[in-house]
């Protein structure tokens, strides 16, 4: 049977943690007296913690010391961790379980490819860690999405060539990273935002078993 490498982003693809990142950044921006909109938040999706804070400070025209920067990063993550500490399996996004089960039944290698340093904690909270053959996250990379590094490491760990990998992503930066890695990019979200992806679906309920079979066999 054909083997493809299936690489899943985490936040906003497997679980709805994008809303918790937004809440935590919004709280931080408020403390700094910076106005932070949903449109700006869209630009933070898939972007590392350091880069996100740099962007928020730039939007708000703020300059701060290195000590303050480190303290703000810690405080954002403490807030974020308090949100995710209550997470359960019911926060796995619709039909993610069906897609993972089908890929496992078809013996397809599966990896996580996330920018988050909290990825393993979250996978444990929702009991999905054992579904993955490889986990590549923010602790394993030196270059953030849209750089393809995270997905190229995932492909290597799955022993699958990049051109035979398929990436599921909800962020613009992530779709760009998948395209730069020469992989098939599947956007999960709105076509308007994720137009650069090879395919876009609103969510996994729109992805049929037939479509997955085609991806495996082509
Ligand atoms: C990405 C999220 O998956 O991980 C971003 O889309 C987040 O919003 C980034 O900033 C880093 O996550 P963490 O958990 O290491 O702060
Ligand atoms: Mg994401």
Q: Describe it for me?
A:
The protein is α/β, with parallel strands linked by helices. It is 43% helix and 11% strand. The protein is built from 9 helices and 6 strands; from the N terminus they run βαααααβαβαβαββα. It is globular. 39% of the residues are buried. Bound molecules: 6-O-phosphono-beta-D-glucopyranose (BG6) and magnesium ion (MG). 6-O-phosphono-beta-D-glucopyranose binds next to α3.
Short description:
It is built from nine helices and six strands. It is α/β, with parallel strands linked by helices and 218 residues long. The model has no long low-confidence stretch (mean pLDDT 96).
Tell how many strands the DSSP assignment holds: 6
What do the pLDDT scores average to?
96
Oligomer: single chain
Structural class: alpha/beta
Give the strand order of the largest sheet, numbering strands 1, 2, ... along the chain.
3-2-1-4-5-6
Labels describing this entry:
globular; 6-stranded parallel β-sheet; 218 residues; Rossmann fold; alpha/beta; DNA polymerase, domain 1; binds magnesium ion; 6 strands; 9 helices; binds 6-O-phosphono-beta-D-glucopyranose; 43% helix
Secondary structure elements and pairings:
Layout: E1 5-8, H1 18-31, H2 38-42, H3 49-59, H4 66-84, H5 96-105, E2 110-113, H6 119-125, E3 134-136, H7 149-158, E4 165-169, H8 172-180, E5 184-188, E6 199-201, H9 209-217
Helix pairs in contact: 1-4
The structure holds 6-O-phosphono-beta-D-glucopyranose and magnesium ion.
6-O-phosphono-beta-D-glucopyranose binds at residues 10-11, 21, 44-49, 52, 77, 114-118, 138, 171.
């Amino acid at each position: 049977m054909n083997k493809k490498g299936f690489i899943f982003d985490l936040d906003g693809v497997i679980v709805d943690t994008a809303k918790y990142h937004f809440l935590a950044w919004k709280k931080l921006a408020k403390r700094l007296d910076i106005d932070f909109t949903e449109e700006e938040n869209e630009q933070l999706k898939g972007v590392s913690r350091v880069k996100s804070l740099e962007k928020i400070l730039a939007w708000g025209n703020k300059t701060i010391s290195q000590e303050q920067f480190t303290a703000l990063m810690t405080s954002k993550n403490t807030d974020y961790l308090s949100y995710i500490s209550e997470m359960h399996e019911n926060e796995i996004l619709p039909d993610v379980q069906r897609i993972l089960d089908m890929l496992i039944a078809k013996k397809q290698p599966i990896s996580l490819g996330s920018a988050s340093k909290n990825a393993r904690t979250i996978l444990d909270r929702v009991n999905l860690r054992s579904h993955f053959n490889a986990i590549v996250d923010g602790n394993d990379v030196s270059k953030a999405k849209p750089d393809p590094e995270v997905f190229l490491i995932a492909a290597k760990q799955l022993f699958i060539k990049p051109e035979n990998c398929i990436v599921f992503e909800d962020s613009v930066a992530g779709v760009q990273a998948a395209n730069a890695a020469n992989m098939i990019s599947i956007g999960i979200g709105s076509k308007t935002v994720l137009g650069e992806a090879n395919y876009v679906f609103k969510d996994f309920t729109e992805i049929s078993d037939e479509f997955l079979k085609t991806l495996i066999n082509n």
